[in-house]
Specification:
Blueprint lengths: L8 H14 L4 H7 L4 H9 L5 E2 L4 E2 L1
Antiparallel strand pairs: 1-2
InterPro entries: DUF4250 (IPR025346)
Organism: Clostridium fessum
Pfam families: DUF4250
Amino acid sequence: MAGKIPNDPIMCLSFVNTQLRDFYPDLDELCSAFDTERSELEKKLQAVGYTYDREKNQFR
């Protein structure tokens, strides 16, 4: 899937959770598809209070 993850943290949160819900079984698959470092994505979302929940496959 071509595209770019939004830079704004809140837009990023919405985009990533939608992608995880609809297309990707886990965060690693999403990061691979978007050529994004998982640690950087997690750091960006942690800065606004969200962490990845592997069981729910979403940031909460």
